[in-house]
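CORE FACILITY INTAKE
Project code: CF-77B
Contact: R.S. (postdoc)
Sample description: multi-component assembly, two entities in total
Requested service: structural model of the whole complex
Turnaround: standard
Below are the sequence entries exactly as provided by the requester. Do not edit them.
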Amino acid sequence: MASLKDLRNRIASVKSTQKITKAMQMVAAAKLRRAEEAAAAARPYADRMASVLANIAGAVEGDGPPLMVGTGKDDVHLFVVFTAERGLCGGFNASIVKLARQRQRQLEAEGKTVKFLAVGKKAWDLMRRDLASKIAERVDFRDVKQIGFDEADRLGEKIIELFDKGEFDVCTIFYSAFQNVITQVPTAQQIIPADLSEGTKDDGDEASSAVYEYEPEPGAILDALIPRNIKVQILHAMLENAASEQGARMSAMDNATRNAGDMIDRLSISYNRQRQAQITTELVEIISGAEAL
Amino acid sequence: MADSFQFELVSPEKLLMSEAVTAVSVPGSEGFFTVMAKHAPVMTTVKPGIVLVTTESGEEQRIFVQGGFADVNEIGLTLLAEHASPADEVDLQALDQSIRDAEEDVADATSPEAKAHAQHKLDQLKEAREGLSAA
């Protein structure tokens, strides 16, 4: 049985842990708000980009650039796995990596090759043990405070460079889509070759009635537009991921704070019981001592 | 007074501007052009330079953009810009730095295509720089 002093110490230590988790929860809540705002602010660009792309894809005759139509094969897959730079956010990182692993096993069973590009420190940490040989590259943004287009640009360039070298045929990004604070959905999205099916649909008929002029010709615009679109999608994934990460951390820390509260309650009860037991023993000793006289 | 139309300037990070304007001059990669209300639909790439926006009240705003796409349709003009900021807040040093980077790219380019591409980018940046310092 732990002594009174031990119990007091434990209560104190759990209390300070609780303070830390509580603070982390509040920090995550503040960061979440900012991350959500950033994600919302980036939406107009992505929307416009999608409609411009849908518009121009219709105007191009023949095949588009290889980044859009792919290499015609799907033997080598590149998985770009986005995770957080830090832990302590529940199953956030693990669930993204798990989804990627699942897909990898599926594809490998079909005889395809899968390579990884680990974005974020945790992706590397989680995958290096058994997938180290398959990780083509790792990137982290540890010293980046607010994810912006520059980061997406750098990463996009890297991916396009790999594609131009013929390192892979299909590129899929894995990130966590933000739904709300308690739900983040690990998502896989194919970016190369581009999946244009969504954009074409919501554009409707009214836009297509107009005769567009293109300057330079559609093909050249498309050549410039496609890499841009890839980067925009990467940015979107990164921003969603950042919001999800904060959401996941917030709920994880909320749980931790509550657990710590429960633990303090339990410890306090046993502390009080033990103190009472000690008092009773002392009283019994005094009374029996007095009786003996 | 001239008719107005909807002008939207969006950068990857956010919607920078969305308002009714009377005229916008855009540095298209094939040459500058000015969009006014009821302009024919056109789509073009944009090179680094200054976008001149005339608002409904006749005020003029100069915005520096570093490349992007312009899309004119019946709703208005949408400018998908890469790094846009008001012209008088442009960080000239950063711009000079990117010019130097571009110069290095030209020097480092191995294939003729890469060299031409880098040179083209450099020229555009230099032109934009001149446009800015002239103002």
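Facility notes:
- Helices of chain A lie at 4-59, 66-69, 92-109, 121-131, 149-164, 197-202, 218-292.
- The radius of gyration of chain A is 28 Å.
Invoice: internal transfer
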